[in-house]
Design a protein that fits this description.
14 strands
Amino acid sequence: MKTNLNWFIGQLNLKNIGFLLLASLLVITGCKKKDISNDSGGNFTYSDPLCFAAVEDSATIGMKRYGYGELNPIPNIEYSYDKVEWRTFTAESTVITLENTGDKVYFRGNNPLGLNVNLEENNSFIRFETNEKKTAVSGNLMSLIDPTCRVTKVPDYCFYDLFNGANITTPPELPATILGKSCYGGLFSCCRYLETAPELPATKMEEGCYGSMFLYCTNLKTPPILPATILAYGCYNSMFDSSGILEAPELPATTLADGCYANMFYYCKYLTTAPELPATTLAPSCYSSMFESCYNLTAAPELPATTLANYCYQYMFNGCDGLTTTPELPATTLADYCYREMFSGCLGLTTVSELPATTLAKNCYEKMFFSCENITTAPAILPATILTEHCYDNMFCHCVKLETAPELTATALVDRCYFMMFEYCESLNSIKIRLTEWGDDYDTFLWLEGVSSNGTFYCPTTLPLEYGIDRIPYGWTIVPLY
């Protein structure tokens, strides 16, 4: 028997209020069934739950657990076909089939602590699973935390990997402004059919909050706006790694954090221009591998920073074959590994900007231009007079078109400072050094192996004339400097 609620409302008057209350109770209790409710959160009109819509017939939606531990607690999730009757959705057992294109199913939950409460402890998390049929996602993702969608804070790890590998074409809304640690980590990773990105309004980042969010989203062409000015450890790490984006979003932050942009655009093979990077004070690994293997990138951004940090530019443009010149690097005091392999394998580079640093650090220039086979012009001078261990290790190794080495102004060697520095620079025929004595063989190990058979070696008269691949190349002319 279906109760006619409109009839009861029409009979409302002061004499039959008690009858109306009794009838209303019958309406509410009468539609209750096992695992079904019509609770819509008090007086709030529930209208924006997470929704899956079939783009192809026979699309399925389920949920599986990944990792090594147990889900604790198991998330409280319900599903509905009409947003009126809600049934219990159990991870790893409930599978929904949308038989016809256009069919929809909605999801909501009451999980104020998030979907993956103990991920950090038990290394276990859940994610939606779809078959090979495409689905479109819409609605408010926050409905999985709060069925009223009023919550604005995302708990730690809440949606970690939630849609990883799902065959979805559109994303849900992500309206939250307060983020948690790794809350969106890997959210759309490997969603190869995803064509649009959601808005990301948060202005303050948390650790790993967007890490790998669009990893391998090969059909995503336009990135979302990223308005945040307060960054956190690894907040954008690998965010667009191997995606299909055609342009980078603006990155307005001037205060950076450890690893904040690391791998952000790794192997974005369609990216041709880079965003401005206005920060003048860097953080450890902040730009590490940021544009690595973006082989269609034609120009590097300006890099105005004068205060560096360990690993800050490591691998930043490694393999960017489209670059022909390097940006100015104005810092005069370096940090450990700061330029390590920064332009390694950039086959399009022909000229290198001056390197004014006078205070070096461990491995600071290691393999900076390794295998840049078309460099013809290096900096005129490397002005630092005091070296550090491995500072120029492999710096120009395999730069086969380089003919003249930068002037090396240091007078004394340290541990492996020139280690393989110009190895296999087969066109190199001129080098000027200020050394007054040789050090350990490893300090200059193979540093001039494979260079031109004829060349000019400029050095002080006090330097002992020792020959070989670890010293002065055989057949070269010695020209004393003083």
